[in-house]
């Protein structure tokens, strides 16, 4: 590419950025300052605002800024560039902007820039921050795409998106032709979607020599990346300030007491700065929140207010720096105590953090393909995670890390790298996606860490049971339609079955509610009875899935009739419901309805409340969740899974637990092996209905058990007429649906 001199900004709105223009010593500095007020933004053609120059000074102070010239040179010369840097070095915000400058310099001949993130809040916050730094409008030149939310236009130059959304885009655009530069950020998180993208993009790069791939990672993964991608250019960024780490070897056994003692010692010391506490799991966050709130209310007000912020990584929230207006309105000093858990590292976007407390362990969800269930396992975090938590303080010269474990524990018990999610999760959705892109010739994927063969076999078996595969093991037409929904394959199958059973409206509501965050608020201590009294108004005798429909309908009625948004929020607060989760469910449902319309699936008017509709909803649920059935084996609420010998209880908030009436057979949405083996979101089903709708070869493959014997007796007692109807229905469902539905 030819080089060009930097022109005076008022001479042309077609300003271009080249490596020569990146050296601040080149050109006439006085001339640039003289026309500064007239300098035009090359991305929108408008004059830069004063805020642009203020933020530019902050950007120039980032550790990565000194690497800009080197990065742009390597970007011009190579197809792949790896950027290694710790948290807070600026790679997630600056590298995408430099890539946008590169695309602008070649007139977007090969497309724009996309930057992936593992977490939704990070993608949104980075897009907002970068749009501000580039002095452009969010949603126009810079935007973001996260599940069920698209804040982009066809003219968006730089978009942030979650890795799973870019993966889904490959279903319709396999070679990602709308992008000239793809940035995979924070790949050390090792999510399934990021690992899949790393593998698939190898083939895409071969097919598109003009495409550039940038990989942002922590230093711990560089050796593995180098062997995976070969000898590619590397940019290494070091943070400015070393972080002091204090190891408290005896504190791990009494971590809660140690955490409380540290928080209040820091607060009494008078040193300013927020505190971030990394706990093992969400239950620990809730417990610590109650204790710190209770103890904090008794502190001397002269020390300032202690504001406790529970930050749940699974929910769409993140910690940001308080804006200037907020600080002006609050004359009393406020210290935030942020309680979070694993994966919360990337959600800390504030430079006001001066203290980090790390317990050094986490509760991980590990999937067992043999029993089709997750186990919650408490184990040490990895060394790379510990380092990431440490680097949260790298922007602060006086930051201090308190480790509630010894250095010996860190070197002996902590693994070097965080385990890849692909080796610990249910792979059914991933395999469905891989089968889908195989249609475009991208079926072979060279994974950085290959998944366990047992997990792959279980995923293929489940897709076969769900009729997503044909006799040759390829994706069936039914499977293609299932892959159109950004949902778990079982949930997609239930939605498709609801078209056959005339209950699409109700099934979309259920799908939205179980996909969104928990609609019930986290309860403070002492509020349990009041909350239960409120929730009883929504309980439905036919099961928790129906209760979710009641809650959503009540929320919709309130939204339609309320005078303002504040009234809706107050209603949710009064009924101990999570307003944000219900809004998310509303957005999810709207997108699912759009998909239904786009692929021309039949949609009937809602008939919720009738006996026929209730039966139809259960049929639709069973069509997808026949692998998640349990039986009360002793009449006391001890449920034995049909597929394995694990025993569980219904969740205390289940409508059956509240009514103290336990059904014999239930279909459930979620189950994890933990201290309390709770079945979540359960509804009663009749064994006769199960035998009519579950595939016969699935039933045959079930392990021997008393429950299977009972079901066999039920099948033996079914009349020949019922058996005939079952055969007609089984023959009719997939074929009729395939004839009716076409992917547009």
TrEMBL record:
Single GO molecular function: hydrolase activity
Endpoints of the signal sequence: none
Reaction equation(s) it catalyzes: ATP + H2O = ADP + phosphate + H(+)
Keyword hit for Isomerase: no
Location of the region described as Disordered in the Swiss-Prot/TrEMBL record: 1-27
Main location: mitochondrion
Assigned keywords, A-Z: Acetylation, ATP-binding, Helicase, Hydrolase, Mitochondrion, Nucleotide-binding, Nucleus
The protein's enzyme class: hydrolase
GO CC terms of this entry: mitochondrion; spliceosomal complex
SMART domains from the UniProt entry: HA2
PROSITE patterns: HELICASE_ATP_BIND_1
The protein's name: Putative pre-mRNA-splicing factor ATP-dependent RNA helicase DHX32
Lineage: Eukaryota, Metazoa, Chordata, Craniata, Vertebrata
Gene behind this protein: DHX32
């Amino acid at each position: 590419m030819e080089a060009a001199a930097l022109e005076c900004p008022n001479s042309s709105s077609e300003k271009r950025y080249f490596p020569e223009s990146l050296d601040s010593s080149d050109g006439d500095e006085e001339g640039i300052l003289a026309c500064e007020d007239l300098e035009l933004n090359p991305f929108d053609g408008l004059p830069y605002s004063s805020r642009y120059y203020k933020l530019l000074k902050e950007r120039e102070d980032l550790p990565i800024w000194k690497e800009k010239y080197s990065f742009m040179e390597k970007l011009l010369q190579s197809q792949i560039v790896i950027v290694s840097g710790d948290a807070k070095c600026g790679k997630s915000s600056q590298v995408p902007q430099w890539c946008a400058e590169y695309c602008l310099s070649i007139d977007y001949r090969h497309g724009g820039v996309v930057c992936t993130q593992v977490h939704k809040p990070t993608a949104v916050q980075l897009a907002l921050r970068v749009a501000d730094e580039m002095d452009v409008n969010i949603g126009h030149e810079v935007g973001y795409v996260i599940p069920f939310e698209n804040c982009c236009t066809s003219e968006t130059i730089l978009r942030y998106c979650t890795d799973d959304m870019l993966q889904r885009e490959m279903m319709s655009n396999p070679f990602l032709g709308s992008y000239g530069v793809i940035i995979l950020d924070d790949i050390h998180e090792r999510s399934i979607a990021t690992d899949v993208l790393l593998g698939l993009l190898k083939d895409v790069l071969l097919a598109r020599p003009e495409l550039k791939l940038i990989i942002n990672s922590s230093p711990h993964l560089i050796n593995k990346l180098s062997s995976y991608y070969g000898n590619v250019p590397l940019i290494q960024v070091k943070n400015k300030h070393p972080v002091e780490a204090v190891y408290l070897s005896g504190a791990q056994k009494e971590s809660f007491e140690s955490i409380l003692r540290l928080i209040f010692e820091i607060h009494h010391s008078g040193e300013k700065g927020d505190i971030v506490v990394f706990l093992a799991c969400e239950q620990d966050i809730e417990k610590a929140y109650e204790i710190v709130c209770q103890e904090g209310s008794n502190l001397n007000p002269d020390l300032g207010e202690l504001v406790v912020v529970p930050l749940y990584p699974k929910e769409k929230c993140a910690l940001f720096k308080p804006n200037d207006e907020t600080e002006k309105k609050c004359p009393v000093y406020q210290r935030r105590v942020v309680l979070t858990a694993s994966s919360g590292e990337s959600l800390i976007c504030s430079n006001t953090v001066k203290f980090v407390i790390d317990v050094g362990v986490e509760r991980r969800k590990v999937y067992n393909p043999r029993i089709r269930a997750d186990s919650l396992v408490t184990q040490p975090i990895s060394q790379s995670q510990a380092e990431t938590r440490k680097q949260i303080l790298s922007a602060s010269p006086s930051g201090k890390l308190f480790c509630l474990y010894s250095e010996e524990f860190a070197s002996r018990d902590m693994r070097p790298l965080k385990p890849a999610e692909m080796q610990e999760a249910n792979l059914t959705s991933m395999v469905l996606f891989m089968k889908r892109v195989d249609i475009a010739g991208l079926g072979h994927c060279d994974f950085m860490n290959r998944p366990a063969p047992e997990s792959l076999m279980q995923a293929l078996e489940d897709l076969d049971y769900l009729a997503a595969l044909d006799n040759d093991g390829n994706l069936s037409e039914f499977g293609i339609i299932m892959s159109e929904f950004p949902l778990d394959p079982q949930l997609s199958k239930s939605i498709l079955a609801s078209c056959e059973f005339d209950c699409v409206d109700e099934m979309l509501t259920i799908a939205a509610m179980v996909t969104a965050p928990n609609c019930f608020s986290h309860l403070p201590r002492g509020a349990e009875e009041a909350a239960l009294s409120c929730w009883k108004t929504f309980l439905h005798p036919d099961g928790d899935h129906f209760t979710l429909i009641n809650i959503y309908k009540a929320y919709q009625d309130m939204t339609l009739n309320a005078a303002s948004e504040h009234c809706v929020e107050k209603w949710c607060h009064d009924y101990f419901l999570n307003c944000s989760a219900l809004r998310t469910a509303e957005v999810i449902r709207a997108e699912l309805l759009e998909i239904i319309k786009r692929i021309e699936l039949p949609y009937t008017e809602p008939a919720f409340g009738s006996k026929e509709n209730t039966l139809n909803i259960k049929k639709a649920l069973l069509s997808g969740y026949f692998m998640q059935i349990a039986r009360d084996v002793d009449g006391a609420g001890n449920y034995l899974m049909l597929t394995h010998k694990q025993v569980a209880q219904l969740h205390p908030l289940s409508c059956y637990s509240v009514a103290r009436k336990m059904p014999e057979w239930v279909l459930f949405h979620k189950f994890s092996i933990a201290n309390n083996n709770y079945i979540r979101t359960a509804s009663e089903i009749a064994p006769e209905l199960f035998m009519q709708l579950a595939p016969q070869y699935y039933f045959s493959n079930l392990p021997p058990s008393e429950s299977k014997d009972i079901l066999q007796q039920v099948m033996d007692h079914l009349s020949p007429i019922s058996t005939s109807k079952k055969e007609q229905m089984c023959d009719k469902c997939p074929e009729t649906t395939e004839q009716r539905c076409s992917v547009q």
